[in-house]
């Protein structure tokens, strides 16, 4: 058999559902990354069936995981964010106003008028089924 179709000893083919649960990718994202050369390509197992080698998916995941804190991407805080933080730190926090009792209270909702009762004549009241 062709070495392209036969997995190495101890390796196995993974179906799409397993690959999706391992990576969290949608089919479209996996396809785009395969085209860009950034994700393992599936191998044809039989007509209409493909699978990813478990060793290739695991190696891809290992290449993505940062090994230490120093390998994490550094995010630069913009000057505006720094200014906003400095302003928030220098502004005293107010919990409530001391003259809250002197403020006018919100107006009560408009009372609704009760619906008018229709006049019912005695002939209608006396009607029984």
From TrEMBL:
Region annotation (Disordered) maps to 60-129
Q: What is this protein called?
A: AlpA family phage regulatory protein
Biased-composition ranges for Basic and acidic residues? 118-129
InterPro entries, alphabetically? Answer: AlpA (IPR010260), Prophage_regulatory_activator (IPR052931)
A UniProt-annotated Pfam family: Phage_AlpA
Coiled coil where? none
Compositional bias segments (type: Polar residues):
90-100
Domain of life of the source:
Bacteria
């Amino acid at each position: 058999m062709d070495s392209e179709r036969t997995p190495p000893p101890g390796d196995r083919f993974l179906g799409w559902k397993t690959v999706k649960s391992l990576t969290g990718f949608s089919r479209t994202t996996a396809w785009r990354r395969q085209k860009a050369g950034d994700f393992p390509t599936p191998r044809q197992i039989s007509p209409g069936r493909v699978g990813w080698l478990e060793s290739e998916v695991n190696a891809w995941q290992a290449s993505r995981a940062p090994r230490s804190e120093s390998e994490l991407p550094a995010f630069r805080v913009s000057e505006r964010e720094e200014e906003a933080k400095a302003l928030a730190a220098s502004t005293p926090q107010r919990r409530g106003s001391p003259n809250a009792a002197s403020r006018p209270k919100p107006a009560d909702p408009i009372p609704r008028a009760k619906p008018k009762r229709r006049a019912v004549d005695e002939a209608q009241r006396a009607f029984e089924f």
